[in-house]
From TrEMBL:
PANTHER family per the UniProt record, alphabetical: OSMOTICALLY INDUCIBLE FAMILY PROTEIN
Name of the featured protein: OsmC family peroxiredoxin
Biased composition, class Polar residues, residue ranges: 1-11, 20-36
NCBIfam families for the chain: osmo_induc_OsmC (TIGR03562)
SUPFAM superfamilies linked: OsmC-like
Region Disordered: start-end pairs: 1-51
Organism: Brevibacterium daeguense
């Protein structure tokens, strides 16, 4: 019988949106707290600050890589390395997150490109974070290294 697992992140925000600032914390893993502000979200993150979009990108890249790894192993072609980046686009004028591009480079012995592309697409569509983000278009650019 499945057992639900809950992971927790938290945030504290001080002040108004544009001049305020906050901290987001990885509560479950206790790996740290990270400062954030409007500039990091609406202009460009500066070193030492993060944004919700960066955190979403990290979550999606991790989830996709894990899902892809499992599917490749089930295919009899376990990966040596899977490297994935998720570029999350935030557009204030269009109402927020307008798209996510997954970029993947993988080293896998004994797989044909057609099977690689098919499994990568299935992993993109099947990973739980992709499903949670179903309201946003997610594209995939995957290549064998």
């Amino acid at each position: 019988m499945p057992r639900p697992v809950t992971n927790t992140g938290s945030a504290v925000w001080n002040g108004d949106l544009k001049s305020g600032n906050g901290t987001t914390t990885l509560e479950t893993s206790q790996l740290g707290s990270f400062p954030t502000n409007w500039k990091a979200r609406s202009e460009e993150s500066e070193r030492g600050t993060t944004s919700p979009e960066e955190l979403i990108g990290a979550a999606l890249a991790t989830c996709f890589s894990m899902q892809f790894s499992n599917m490749l192993a089930e295919n009899g072609t376990p990966p040596t390395t899977i490297e994935t980046t998720a570029n999350v686009t935030f557009n204030i004028g269009e109402g927020g997150i307008t798209g996510i591009e997954l970029v993947n480079s993988s080293t896998i012995d004994g797989i044909e490109d057609g099977d690689f592309q098919r499994i990568a697409g299935e992993a993109k569509d099947g990973c739980p974070v992709s499903k949670a983000l179903s309201g946003v278009e997610i594209t995939l650019n995957a290549e064998l290294a």
